[in-house]
UniProtKB/TrEMBL annotation:
The chain crosses the membrane at residues 26-46. Keywords: Membrane, Transmembrane, Transmembrane helix. SUPFAM superfamilies: TPR-like. This is Tetratricopeptide repeat protein. It comes from the Bacteria. It holds the Pfam family TPR_19. Residues 70-105 are annotated as: Disordered.
Length: 281
């Protein structure tokens, strides 16, 4: 048993180093350390074997940057030679296959949904959300929600946000209810705020306002989301035609910065409230 334990510890250390050196998602570290045997096996199957089968080998970030820099330098030199010849003819092939191997190493995947690691898909999905490309966000989050990550609350919540942005209200609500029942400890205030927005879009304004009132009735800053909840409540009232209540809520929100210290994330809701008041008046 001591030998087995040392072997497992050595494997955990090696895989942890591999995660850091190759730029894998840091979410793998707790998986490997908390589930040393099963987590290590999953990491090897999900991250290492597909790469080896593609014949790419294991490349550290430093080596990858060096290879890319050598390739860029060589391309600049070849381009300069081509310009000096007046752009006539074709360049002779590189003296070695190193540039070709580097180009193949960094070739973008043909299918971004099927190729690439899980953290790459999530990064592209968040970028799609930020630029309001909701169709792409839905596809990317859905592609990431596979296998070991099928029940990942981050992915489920991201998929719910993408469906909401696209207008798939029923799909968004089902995903949010899945989080409420299955992962109640995951960002409960953020989930509740989005659920209230979905309910309001579906026409159930009373349920949406009641849900936000329940959140605002709690103590504390609601994990930094109290001002967001206040703004969304005022927004729903405004959109439903309850202008007097909306103006009162927005006015209270704009005064918050004068009475309390706010951070940058909270300040955006104060600014949006001010813009909404100007639009109403």
């Amino acid at each position: 048993m001591p030998v087995f334990g040392l072997a497992v510890l050595a494997l955990v250390i090696v895989l942890s180093v591999h995660v850091c050196q190759t730029g894998r998602s840091m979410m793998w570290l707790p998986v490997i350390w908390l589930l040393p045997v099963l987590g290590s096996l999953i990491y090897v199957l999900v991250e290492m074997l597909p790469q080896l089968f593609r014949g790419e080998g294991v490349v550290s970030l430093e080596a990858a940057r060096e290879a890319r820099q050598r390739d860029v330098t060589r391309n600049r030199r070849d381009d300069l030679q081509w310009r000096r010849r007046g752009g006539q003819g074709e360049l002779s092939p590189p003296r070695s296959g190193e540039a070709h191997r580097a180009a193949r190493m960094f070739r973008p995947p043909k299918d971004p949904l099927r190729e690439g690691m899980i953290h790459d898909k999530l990064k592209r999905a968040e970028e799609a959300l930020a630029t309001h490309r909701y169709d792409a966000a839905v596809d990317l989050f859905a592609a990431a929600r596979q296998g070991f990550f099928a029940d990942s609350p981050d992915i489920v919540f991201g998929l719910a946000r993408a469906h909401f942005g696209r207008g798939d209200l029923d799909a968004a609500l089902n995903l949010l209810d899945e989080l409420v029942t299955g992962r109640p400890a995951f960002q409960p205030h953020a989930v509740a705020i989005l659920k209230a927005r979905v309910l309001a879009k579906q026409g159930d304004v009373a349920a949406a306002v009641a849900l936000l009132d329940a959140i605002l009735g709690q103590t504390g800053n609601l994990e930094g989301r109290r001002l967001e909840a206040q703004y969304r409540r005022a927004e729903i009232l405004w959109q439903s035609g309850a202008m007097d209540e909306a103006v009162a809520a927005l006015t209270e929100l704009t005064r918050h910065e004068q009475l309390f210290r706010v951070n940058d994330d909270e300040r955006q809701w104060v600014r949006l409230a001010g813009q909404a008041l100007q639009a109403i008046s």
